[in-house]
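re: ur question from the group chat, yeah i did fold both. here u go
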Amino acid sequence: MAINLVKGQTIDLRKNDKGESFDLSSVTIGLGWDVKQKNGGFLGKLFGSGEEEEYDLDAIAFLLNAEGKIANMGRTVQKGNHNISMFEGDVVYFNSMQHPSGNIWLTGDNRTGAGDGDDEQIIVKLNNLSPAYDRILFVVAIYQGKKNHQHFGMVENAFIRAVDRTGKEIARYSLSGDATFNGICSMTFAEVYRKDGSWKFRAIGEPHSTDSFVDILQNYR
């Protein structure tokens, strides 16, 4: 049975305190969320005539070295009329969905959050990950949240979970928005890090007002 974590709690991903072991050859980090139902009250007035509004929350992974830094910022490439930065570097995000090692990738970019279960998934082959990487930080940001006046106070049932290769859920950290998250447009949800030959999972839940993960990234350069 998966462990429901609280903020700051850390667990061993390889086996739990009941002796249950997990296959870390491929671990799915799943992230999900729902947008609070609109009504005729404050939110109804806020959103207008009851039309559904799309929320585009993006999952991002920072691969950090032993110094807690991103060693490879990737390169800039041109796609169509746009320049794409940080391509094939140590940041996995919607414009660079697969790490050049092939051991971590984003399965897709869900732009609405519609549907049950994981809305976005990042898959990591932890057993194959180079020793050059000591920690993976998982961040979720609301795309253009500032411009669209969207924030985590309007999001509920948000979670991050770790699932092993066989489909067993190892741990889950849930976070439902309330007034304390008003104006919060991104969140450092959790991290996976090496410890004593194994991998640990830590629930972080650190809020940020910026809607750009690049701003958060500056702390790791």
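okk and heres the other one u asked abt
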Amino acid sequence: MDKKEKYKVNLVWTACIFLFWEFGAFILDKVLNDPLAEAKLPYPHSIILSITQNFTDLMTASGLTFSRAVMGFTIGALVGFGLAIIMSLSKVAEKIALPYLIVSQMIPVLGLAPIIFTLVKDMDASRIVIAAYITFFPVAINMLSGLNSVDMDKKELLYSYAAKKRSIYYKLMVPFSLPYLFAGLKIAAPMSITASILVDMLGSKGGIGVKLLYSLYSGTKDVFWASVVTSALMGIISYFIVVLFEKIAIPWRRQEAN
């Protein structure tokens, strides 16, 4: 399937989902006469209208949340990458660190976020720390899997040429592990946005999470759904930014796919 066909398929799917959603909202509102139809399933065209009417506010709020999530995501990705390299270099370090890394993910973000905020006493810093916390684990685990998957024969071949360990990592192991790394990054990117939105709801003065919370309590359902859709778009955009970087960093995979 070429690119034009892919675009056509995506366009058809988008149109079908839109029409199906409109039909479902119509059934709920006009046929079943549900008094909570607007809250349960609003018309998608009304959500688009609300986004255009509140565009500036939504972009300002989402920009604040998104920028902090990106900072946390970057820090978490670097930490995860570094941990994977260390655990790959030393099996002792892997045996010591890996169980604690797994245990760290057992702590629910909803419970951890207030603790982080109490420690750092800054909402922006809390967003960054939580986003980094969410990011580092999938990055570290996926990158470590990639490093451990390198063919031993290839490593021994480089050793036979008296290659130093740094060169082996630079020329073989890290390039081989990049698809694994980006798999982890693609998982972590939307999750870091979600974590940042969650921190917004803990008393922040700005951010898309605040818009969500205030619109929910004030009963402005159109703004609430516009905020929900904007939040979802932020997660989707973050995913495709990682995909773009993957295509730039691993051009040979795109050539293989073609």
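fwiw on the second one: The chain has a mean pLDDT of 88. The chain is about 85% helix and 0% strand. idk if thats what u expected
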